[in-house]
Amino acid sequence: MTFTVRSLLALPAVRTVSLTPGVGEERAITWAHVCELPEPWQWLGRGALVMTTGIGVPATTDEQCAYLAGMHAAGIAAVAIDEEMIETPLTEPALAYAAHIGFPVLQTAHEVPFVTLAMAVAEAGQAERNARMLQAEQLHGSLLLAELCGGSVPSEPAARLVATYDVEPPYLLAVTENEDVRATLDEVHAAFSAQLVPALATVKDGQVLILSESGERVDRVLESLTGETARIGVSAHFHRLEDLPTALRQARSALIRNHQSGRVLRFEENTTASLFLPNDADRLRGISRQVLGPLRTYDEQRGTSLTQTLRVFLEENRSWVRAAERLYVHRQTLIARVSRIEKIIDRDLSSIEDTAECWLAVQAAIGCGDLEPNDTAPHAPGSDDA
Fold this sequence. Notes:
By secondary structure, the chain is an alpha/beta fold. Helix 9 packs across helix 13.
């Protein structure tokens, strides 16, 4: 925030008042200097607060008006005069002239040394610079996290870049959403900064993503962000930034299953879809990839979505009609896709045993974060027919 004449007048410690009330109070003060010479603008310029005991203030009204006009023309922010030491106080016409041209004339209590004013201005300037640096750092961190979520930065360089923000493994990723995502992002930055907890935050797909170290300090900040209405989903801990896309799916899965306002739900708290599946993410991933691995590889290489087709088909209890409707494809197209899926994964979906195995594999993929919990959006008809 810019430090202004109004900011200075609001500080109790400087005991300074305006002799031209309401005039020029929005003028920015960037530095302060004592000057007892009759023409301060010869040495001082834009943004300066001129502090004087009044030695250089001329005696006549005309000369005082010229004194004030010279400072105003030079862009000097204001003049602060000792209330007792001035030999020739500014006349009422001179003060009226200052008000007319919009130049603020201030009066400081005699007991307050000018260094107090100078320090107040310097501290405000430093605070403003720090705020700008923090804002720039947050912006760069936001762009970095967005790149990392897209998987465009190799793991090793990514870890070094993230470490420059003092974020070290084990990591966690949190997701929250609100109608005003920009305001939420600002709130997240403010909360983590206030608690001196390092974190990166960005906006992606209408949600605010937060990357930080795991630990009690982060837990406390996340709890403070929920308030009465917000909901937050948090991934399992992870050590490699190449696992960030999986962590994002986990956090979104937790957010979707978090139906209680004002609550932080962690991925580990999610219950799996079957009593026969473990709770450990690595074991779930192993189960999923053992069955679905060839199918997911096929999808990745050919740009198809057969994994999704399998999931929808199983979720609809192998109903050709309902599954075809959800996928927006013809029944014969679905039959052809399922036939191809059976060949790729070497399973027979008319067999209860193979069907159960595939169902558990899909649920394991959802449980470990390899599949979105609501990843059933239809693709364009014919997109899997290549």
